[in-house]
Specification:
Catalytic activity: ATP + protein L-histidine = ADP + protein N-phospho-L-histidine
Organism: Planococcus rifietoensis
Distance between the termini: 65 Å
CATH architecture of the largest domain: 2-Layer Sandwich
CATH class of the largest domain: Alpha Beta
Shape: rod-shaped
Helix content: 55-70%
Order of helices and strands: HHEEHEHEEHHHHEHHEEHEEHHEE
Oligomer: single chain
CATH topology of the largest domain: Beta-Lactamase
Number of strands: 12
Number of helices: 13
Structural class: alpha+beta
Number of domains: 3
Protein name: Heme sensor protein HssS
Strand content: 15-25%
GO molecular function: ATP binding; phosphorelay sensor kinase activity
Radius of gyration: 49 Å
Pfam families: HAMP, HATPase_c, HisKA
Largest sheet: 5 strands, antiparallel
Length: 459
């Protein structure tokens, strides 16, 4: 069942239940508060009629009673045996004989006040002789009992039609209005549902023109924002898969080619060694790529648990020693100023940050250039700066450098090999430790990466 149909049924049931509750409430109000007042009002009218009838000569009584009946009252006149009726007739003339005798004896019959409570028909509309006022009258020297009540059907005949038509009109107009409102409410939700279903097939161009300033409007705005982000994420994911597939396929193709060359007869030992070195280099590329992918996956689900005090100066010194061969291979001058500093964190993940940053500095430095590394500490923060004087990045590349699936212009970087994950991994690890990472770069002027971490006392 659709939301539109549910809304209609809910509104209809609400109207039905509300009507029933209102009906019961009005019955209760009448029986508890209005019935006795209605009894007293009709009693005063009946006593006035009786006083007037007592003063009339016998030949005028019947015509007077007919006039009263035509004026909108039901009259039941009896001397205990004979009965005369004027105005509308009672639907039910059942009454205890002792009540008639009490009125003949001069008592008052408060039938409206004492009429039994009923759930579905209020006493006001019960056209029964028991639901009337009885007063004694003397006509021609003989005692009579006069029972009286307003003729509701005669008095309110036009009002019945008026209020009946009004009630039907209110119900119909309310129902039509509810259908219109339901349509206006459900239509944008239907559009959102269709757009969401299309997103499952990676279709992000479904038009969604919902201009509202209520909760549905805010929902539509948030949906558009979410869809835009998902679309960007999907595009980056596809680019990432393409790039990683290329980075995996390229060394695999190279390895296969040189393995084929190694199988050829008559190859010199120097060529074999050269081919083996190339295979070893491409294998190292594959190993680095898989390591970065595994690190990225571990960072995504990492939580800052089981933390330890990490000596950053020792980590950086060990990383520089480990990468010494890379610096020597490009004849890079290294300047390192490492002040003892400690932070609370995951030593393995932080080690990954320093390896990525220093590897990038070596990779994008010119042959014979230099790299500066510094570690300083203020009262509450630690600053790690890695600066190279290599090819640098454009403003647009700097803006996207930390995005997980971003890779710089391959033509400008002269085919430098990499997965484009290093800075993304570093950023996520640093933020996991409550720090931040900043990047300053310009083409031809090199790149400066600054890591800021919360300081901790040494053990």
């Amino acid at each position: 069942m659709s939301l539109y149909v549910k809304f209609i049924w809910f509104t209809f049931l609400t109207m039905l239940i509300s009507s029933a509750i209102s009906f019961f409430a009005m019955n209760t109000l009448y029986h508890q508060f209005l019935k006795e007042d209605n009894n007293d009002k009709n009693l005063a009218i009946a006593e006035s009629f009786a006083d007037h009838l007592n003063s009339l000569p016998p030949n005028q009584v019947e015509s007077t009673l007919e006039v009263l009946g035509d004026a909108g009252y039901q009259l039941y006149l009896t001397d205990g045996s004979a009965i005369s009726r004027f105005g509308g007739e009672f639907r039910d003339e059942t009454i205890a004989q002792q009540d008639v005798q009490h009125v003949l004896g001069g008592d008052i019959f408060n039938g409206i006040r004492d009429f039994p409570r009923q759930t579905f028909v209020t006493g006001f509309f019960a056209n029964e002789l028991q639901n009337s006022i009885g007063v004694p009258v003397t006509l021609g020297g003989e005692p009579y009992a006069l029972f009286l009540r307003p003729d509701i059907e005669l008095l309110f005949q036009e009002l019945h039609l008026l209020f009946g038509g009004l009630a039907v009109g209110i119900v119909l107009l309310s129902f039509l209005g509810m259908l219109l409102v339901a349509r206006l409410l459900i239509q944008p939700i239907t559009k959102l549902t269709e757009a969401t279903e299309k997103m499952a097939t990676e279709t992000f161009d479904v038009p969604l023109a919902i201009d509202r300033r209520d909760e549905i409007g805010r929902l539509a705005d948030q949906f558009l924002l979410m869809r835009s982000r998902i679309e960007q994420s999907t595009v980056k994911r596809k680019e990432f898969v393409h790039n990683v597939s290329h980075d995996i396929q390229s060394p695999l193709h190279t390895i296969q080619s040189y393995l084929g060359l190694l199988e050829k007869p008559g190859i010199s030992d120097s060529d074999k060694q050269h081919y083996a070195d190339i295979i070893r280099e491409e294998t190292a590329r594959l190993s680095l790529l898989t390591t970065q992918l595994l690190t990225l996956a571990s960072v995504d689900k990492e939580t800052p648990e089981a933390l330890e005090t990490v000596a950053l100066h020792e980590q950086l010194h060990a990383t520089l020693s480990h990468l010494r061969y890379a610096f020597d291979d490009k004849e890079l001058a290294l300047s390192a100023q490492l002040t003892p500093a400690y932070t609370l964190g995951n030593a393995v993940l932080l080690q990954t940050v320093w390896e990525n940053l220093l590897t990038n500095a070596v990779k994008y430095s010119e042959q014979g250039g230099s790299v500066d590394v510094s570690l300083t500490q203020s009262e509450n923060h630690i600053y790690v700066t890695v600066r190279d004087y290599g090819i640098g990045m454009t403003e647009d590349e700097t803006k996207h450098a930390f995005e997980r699936f971003y890779r710089a212009d391959q033509a400008r970087t002269r085919g430098q090999k990499g997965s484009g994950l290093g800075l993304s991994i570093a950023k996520e690890i640093i933020e996991l430790h409550g720090g931040r990472i900043e990047l300053d770069s310009a083409p031809g002027a090199g790149t400066t990466v600054t890591v800021i971490l919360p300081a901790s006392s040494s053990v």
